[in-house]
Design goal:
The structure is a single chain. Helices cover 85% and strands 0% of the residues. The chain is mostly helical.
């Protein structure tokens, strides 16, 4: 692969790793909200263990192994400072997922914050791309 293809793949890997990491904050909350203690008690031990292990598996495999693997791939082909800027997207992903999945309230203040974060990430990457 050429350098340009590696650079594009590294940027995509950095974005995906931050999306996975951003969504990981919701995994345990979703599991706890949608599973009451009465349901857990009524299920057999095996089923309740599986329900409780799903968020743990997500957090351990996707959030840690896959996300950091992609992050390391990104650092291999991009400047570390450029990859670090993408970590600012994590709160945006968490906010969007919270609104869409959990029904959290969304206000104009959140929209202003999202726009500022995305503009900052774009500006930093646009300036480092010219150098």
């Amino acid at each position: 692969m050429g350098k340009e293809r590696h650079t594009r793949a590294a940027i995509i890997a950095a974005l995906i790793s931050n999306v996975i990491f951003g969504l990981s904050f919701m995994a345990s909350r979703i599991a706890l909200e949608h599973t009451s203690s009465a349901i857990m008690l009524s299920l057999r031990f095996g089923a309740s263990v599986i329900i409780m292990l799903l968020p743990v598996l997500y957090l351990s495999l996707l959030s840690s192994v896959v996300a950091f693997g992609m992050l390391n791939y990104s650092v291999t082909y991009l400047d570390a400072a450029k990859v670090t800027v993408f970590s600012n997207i994590i709160p945006v992903i968490s906010l969007v997922a919270g609104v869409l999945v959990l029904g959290e309230p969304f206000s104009a203040v959140y929209l202003i914050g999202v726009v500022l974060i995305l503009l900052g990430v774009y500006k930093v990457n646009a300036e480092t791309g010219r150098e």
